[in-house]
């Protein structure tokens, strides 16, 4: 299938490389890609290097490539700045589905994508960009949740051969709500310059994570927002494990790990864009539902701390600053 990926950051480049390995024609559309050119995408995979030749890169102003499907992997802050006419131009050369991954569910409607074409999805994995065309797939049990669409099985089915589990659903919103709760942990983990496994290896990190997620569960219940269990990165499974098997996290303290979440990647590259977005949004949702949150509100107030003071040395220091 001819596939256009809008927003070739770490996740977009990873998906593009995986689709190209499965034989699809892939075009990555980015802001600063320049003129059309073919590139070799290299994926650092737990099983070794995967090399995808013939991936096209074009600039956003180069015109809409003809496609059978579009995949949008722009970050929330970037997608929110896209103008409706510009997006319509990018997706006008065809009538196939437009898959929006990890976005605000309101954005596809704002961009006037017809209901019959728009689909929501989640990438439950960690990707780190090494260079322009090199990306690393980090962590274990990577998965993708995507809404059912014509041609979707053909498009995403081959990713399983590269170790990425694909879960097809009729409605992605309950899964997105669960993933939203998972993303509440991005900020406190990033403030300590740690990956999530290393953060949870500390008792104070587990205590803070449990409190932050519990406020997420309470808010979703109060706001009548359904939750669905995720095939990976599931917040309820994590909360239960913290409660029943806290010692199982201890070994991660000595285990090397490169699964940096997007907020930490932004801090490390001096791009702390909307670092507190998810925690702030939860506080707003809770307030509208008549709840007053403590931990998410407090950690939200620390979002600018890295730029002015630096990272916290460990989760215990962060927890003390919040009490």
What does this structure look like?
An eight-stranded mixed beta barrel has the order 1-2-4-3-8-7-6-5. The N and C termini lie far apart (53 Å). It has 15 helices and nine strands. The relative contact order is 0.12. 38% of the residues lie in helices and 23% in strands.
Report the biggest beta sheet as strand number plus sense, adding barrel if it closes: 8 strands, mixed, barrel
Helix content: 25-40%
Q: What would the principal axes of the Cα set say about the shape?
A: globular
**CATH fold naming of the largest domain:** Rossmann fold
Q: Write down the domain tally.
A: 2
Architecture (CATH level 2) name of the largest domain: 3-Layer(aba) Sandwich
Give me the secondary-structure category. alpha/beta
The average pLDDT score comes to 92
Briefly say what this structure is.
By secondary structure, the chain is of the alpha/beta class.
Search tags:
323 residues; alpha/beta; N-(1-d-carboxylethyl)-l-norvaline Dehydrogenase, domain 2; eight-stranded mixed β-barrel; 15 helices; 9 strands
Which SSEs are present, and which pair or pack?
Layout: E1 2-6, H1 10-21, E2 25-30, E3 37-45, E4 48-59, E5 69-72, H2 76-81, H3 84-90, E6 98-101, H4 107-110, E7 118-131, E8 134-147, H5 152-156, E9 165-169, H6 173-183, H7 186-191, H8 196-200, H9 203-222, H10 235-244, H11 262-268, H12 277-288, H13 295-300, H14 305-308, H15 315-322
Parallel strand pairs: 1-2, 1-5, 2-4, 3-8, 5-6, 6-7, 8-9
Antiparallel strand pairs: 3-4, 7-8
Helix pairs in contact: 6-9, 9-10
């Amino acid at each position: 299938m001819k596939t256009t990926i809008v927003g070739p950051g770490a996740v977009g480049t990873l998906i593009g490389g995986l689709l190209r390995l499965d034989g699809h024609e892939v075009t990555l559309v980015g802001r600063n890609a320049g003129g059309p050119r073919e590139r070799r995408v290299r994926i650092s995979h737990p099983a070794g290097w995967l090399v995808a030749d013939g991936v096209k890169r074009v600039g956003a102003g180069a015109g809409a490539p003809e496609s059978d499907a579009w995949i949008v992997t722009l970050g929330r802050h970037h997608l929110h700045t896209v103008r409706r006419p510009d997006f319509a131009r990018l997706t006008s050369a065809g009538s196939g589905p437009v898959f929006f991954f990890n976005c605000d569910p309101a954005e596809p409607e704002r961009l006037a994508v017809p209901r019959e074409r728009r689909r929501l999805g989640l990438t439950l994995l960690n990707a780190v960009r090494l260079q322009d065309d090199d990306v690393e797939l980090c962590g274990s049990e990577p998965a993708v949740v995507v809404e059912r669409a014509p041609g979707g099985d053909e498009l995403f089915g081959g990713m399983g051969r590269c170790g990425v589990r694909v879960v097809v659903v009729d409605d992605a919103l309950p899964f997105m709500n669960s993933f939203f709760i998972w993303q509440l942990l991005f900020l406190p983990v990033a403030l300590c310059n740690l990956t999530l496994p290393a953060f949870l290896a500390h008792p104070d990190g587990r205590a803070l994570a449990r409190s932050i997620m519990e406020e997420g569960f309470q808010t979703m219940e109060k706001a009548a927002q359904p939750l669905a269990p995720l095939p990976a990165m599931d917040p309820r499974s994590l909360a239960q494990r913290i409660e029943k098997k806290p010692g199982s996290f201890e070994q991660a303290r000595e285990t090397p790990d490169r699964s940096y979440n997007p907020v930490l990647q932004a801090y490390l590259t001096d791009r702390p864009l909307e670092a507190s977005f998810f925690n702030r949004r939860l506080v707003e949702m809770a307030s509208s539902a008549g709840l007053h949150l403590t931990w998410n509100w407090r950690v939200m107030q620390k979002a600018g701390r890295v730029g002015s003071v630096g990272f916290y040395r460990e989760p215990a220091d962060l927890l003390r600053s919040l009490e």
